[in-house]
Records
---
Amino acid sequence: MDQPTRMDKPIYVTEPVLPPLEDFLPYLRQIWDSKTLTNGGPFHQQLEEALCAYLGVKHVALFTNATIALITAVQALRITGEVITTPYSFVATAHSLLWSGVKPVFVDIDPLTLNLDPDNIEAAITPHTTAIMPVHCYGRPCDVARIQAIADVYGLKVLYDAAHAFGVRDAQGGITRHGDLAVLSFHATKVFNTFEGGAIICPDEKTKRRIDSLKNFGIADEVTVTAPGINGKMSEFNAALGLLQLQGIDAAIAQRRHIDASYRAALAGVTGIDCLAHAADTLQNHGYFPILVRPGYPLSRDALYQLLREHGIYARRYFYPLISDFPMYRGLPSASPANLPAARLAADQVLCLPIYPALDAAAQQRIIDLVRRAAA
Ligand code: T4K
């Protein structure tokens, strides 16, 4: 096998998309001239409107990041007690509950979609359950209809962690219209980035007003504070960048789609490597390219991860370890390994290969060759 040469540039799991710097300068000039830096300035307003149009939703509340948005969404929905969620996600999902004094109750995932399995939800409901918090993992939509049906029967709220799901559409429209609230991330590593950032998709004007107040310390007016809110506001810098980023988003997703298709074609015949299947009737955003390294492959997942690293390719094991294995969660009864076999298997087999618009064909071929040659 080829040894890495010093010429090879490291390839990370992702690389942020950035517009040409010159294109951003006029936006910065406007901010410098106006001296409006934050607290709901003109770029903040414009980005909310532009995102409503792009995502096909009525109300968007911008945030400094998705974690603060999740914490605020929990507060806005008055979620207390216990919340049913997935252990197979980034740790911010469960942390947002713990920060809110709410107990996460982990249920297992569907082994094919890697999303919360609706079949496991009802058995986990107790008199203390107030909500379900699923994740559209890798942007693949959850079984939104079945989750909503269970929530309706038991009177539960549904809060979607849609951090990965920017721009994902099902047959009827944007996926973030589902649930009582949905939260997006605009972090540097996401399909749409504002350096740091996030948003809550709100179903109506009244909810948006409440969320806007909660992200601004709970302030109602100059002399009135109605709730113990937080500072979750997006700055004008991030909002202006978002406006510019939105201009290139369709092209960026199209490039990702092409890379996704090339991986699928090249890895189709490799014994022991499964690519996560796309959902039917769904327009994906291709933010991640997870493969599952099965026992039929000659290397373990970790050996493949290591081999790639030795060649300067920094694939990532999203999501290993499971959230339920971290010290602040592992004592929970729902965190027991016997409760989460499908999540554990996925965490032990998954590897997210690099995918981002600037990943060129030669670099992708290097990755494919390493995966294929190890199997030859
Ligand atoms: N819910 C879910 C389901 C999430 O996945 C996340 C975040 C959240 C909630 C919370 O959203 P935010 O509060 O962040 O808005 C990364 C991200 O930091 C995190 O946002 C993301 N999920 C998670 C899945 O991945 P790390 O620790 O893996 O990131 P890091 O710094 O190792 O970056 C990965 C690679 O990306 C680097 O090797 C190189 C590249 N990179 C990264 C950054 C930050 C760049 O090229 N430039 C950069 O600026 O967590």
---
Amino acid sequence: MPSAFAPGKCILFGEHAVVFGHPAVAVAIDQGVRVSVEVSDKWKLEGSSFEPSRHPHISHIIQNIFQYTGPPLDIDVDSSLFSAAGMGSSAALSNAFGAAMYAYLNPGEKLDAVMLAKMAHSAEASAQKGRASPTDTATSALGGCVVVSGRAVPGTRHVFDTSLKTPEGSRKWAINVVDIPPRIGDAWLVIGYSGTGSPTGRMVAKVAKLISEVPDMMEEMEAIANVTRAGLVALSAGNLEGLGMAMDACHDSLRKLKVSNNKLDRMVSAARLHSLGAKLTGAGGGGCMVALTHEPTMVSEAIEVAGGVPLSTRLGAEGVRFL
Ligand code: MEV
């Protein structure tokens, strides 16, 4: 049975600003989504009847990418990610489903992570009213640490370029990767789920509305971009303390963009007692925060006390793969 696994992601810096062409830095995490496909007498998803309108990513991949007209499929999904929570669950689902479909239609052929990343990005964009950066999909496809930016980023290796027409205009991104130094790889990320999801499309639209009403807020995007550049320098140099400080600063800017909430702020404050830095991660408005630490157990306990659900991972897991 063709099956594939794609990891989730955690954005260290640059969420929201990346939709406007600024850089973002994300790492693949240990948790992710496994998908397998099997020919069946009718279309099924996780044992129930498949409703294309309720699963826009999957329908986009079946109809628009593969233009599949073969027999119905039974699609089995097994996820260790919280959904609509900033962990890239829809990107991981798109990548894993795309890879499983590719294996089903092209048995024995090699997996092309760049092709998958582009395909999953178009699925995200079609599901998010044309507003989606390639951050989640590229990180899940390539694995490791991915830097997404409107232009080349010094100190990174360029992998591919991609573009998209959004309601706010055309966007172009360069997808780059950076090696994670051993000192950073020894640390842990503890991700804390706030208990409520928040669809990325809605949060991205909320930020777009805020900026159209208060154009000065665009300065906050610049602030996030500066913090992202500083954080990337710290990461590349193996400077954990600098990396943590940049995460703290990124959270402050995201609060000003009104994408944090009380629960996320409480979890971030609780985690900071045993962390090098902490921030919300992903679209915000619910979803998750993340802390960088050498003490994952203490941070997990602090997150639980603040009412969140913790999950620990190393930084920079392997990207999408056939199983
Ligand atoms: C979502 O994980 C991150 C955002 O920047 C949206 C995007 O990049 O498409 C909020």
